[in-house]
Amino acid sequence: VKVTYISTDGTETDMDVAEGTSLMQAAVSSGLDGVIGECGGSAMCATCHVYVDASFLEKLPAIDDMEEEMLECTSSDRRPTSRLSCQIESNSDIDGIRVTFPETQV
Ligand code: FES
Predict the structure, then answer these.
(1) Backbone phi, then psi, for 93, in 5-degree steps?
(2) What is the model's pLDDT at position 40?
(3) 58 with 64: CB under 8 angstroms?
(4) Fewer beta carbons within 10 angstroms: which end of the chain, N or C?
């Protein structure tokens, strides 16, 4: 599944993310510094905040209560396209998705 990560300076990194892997895990294990993923993916830290390409928003699972609460505590502004990347699992529906890292996670 192709995922493009865009850093704040506009650098794009294309990755092939295995199905079932979260976009947070993939970014962290490849050493991208746009997300931290402090809580390890349990929707408890909000340091994996990303802005999702609007055309993919509806293909993602709905925001649950935990994610909603964490999105209220992101360091960078929450936008309509804000999601926690640990709650986005790679699957064929989101092939080609583009996510942008926020200014800061802390
Ligand atoms: Fe902590 Fe996503 S990794 S909320």
Answers:
(1) -65, -30
(2) 98
(3) no
(4) C
